[in-house]
Amino acid sequence: MVRALLLLAGAAAVLLGLGLLATGALTLPTRHPPVALHFSGPALLLLAATPMLVGTLLLALGSGRLQRQAPVARLLAGVAIAAVALALLLAPRY
Question: Distance between CA 32 and CA 43 in Å, rounded?
Fold first, then answer.
């Protein structure tokens, strides 16, 4: 049951990342109403890579190809966190 949920969540995350790439640009509001973050180009690529990396990790865990404590699993999680942080830094504010 847990493996099926991991596989389903991983596939959904990868599809979310591909959907973000297909949009071409994304504008997200911030907590301060007139200011918004605009993701396009490298910022959008990094933002879309985050759910794709996490989805790949979940798919590998669900299929049994990777153990939770493996160094590669920790590396993938760290790269995903770094990608979203860099995307937030690169996104211009309007």
Answer: 20
